[in-house]
What we know:
Layout: E1 17-21, H1 25-33, E2 38-42, E3 56-60, H2 65-81, E4 87-88, E5 93-96, E6 99-102, H3 105-116, E7 121-123, H4 124-131, H5 138-152, E8 158-162, E9 166-170, H6 174-178
Amino acid sequence: MSTADAPLGYWINQDVVILRWPEQRAEADRLAQLAVPRLLLVEPGAPPPGTVSCLEDWVRMPVDDGDVRARLETLVHRAGEHPAVPSLDGHGQLSFRGQRVVLSPLDERIAAILVAAFDRGVAEADLLRDVWPNGGHAGKLRVHISRLRKRIAPIGLRIKAIRSFGYRLHGPNPADLSEIRQ
């Protein structure tokens, strides 16, 4: 099947989504939030996107299938270069799959503990002890977790509360991704 015949907005392979630009801009924005690699096929005469993510590339239509394959391979490679685990730089920047946010010093301390246990639960008692060694309470932690959730959502990270235990930092849920794999 040629690129022109491919159903756009669908996974052409298991790594990159191909979308029409600007027609499928909203979907491109949604996929960017999920840190999903995407190739945008720019309609003739349309202004190109202001691409700033390593997980996004574009080509102007009409385009040769070989050029599309080369762009797809490049996006797969770029996605592999970005760590699947978030990282903190020690100066308040939290990075995940080529995107970053700046955190307050307190949010950075909370995030550091959650990043160290990425995709695993962290006991609330451990967070309280490590973030506030001189004493903190669960209500204070909940306020900061809520604020941190909002801060990291744009880069595709989530914090899930684990009832009667604590919290887990994770990337996009498989359910979030299954909606776009059709």
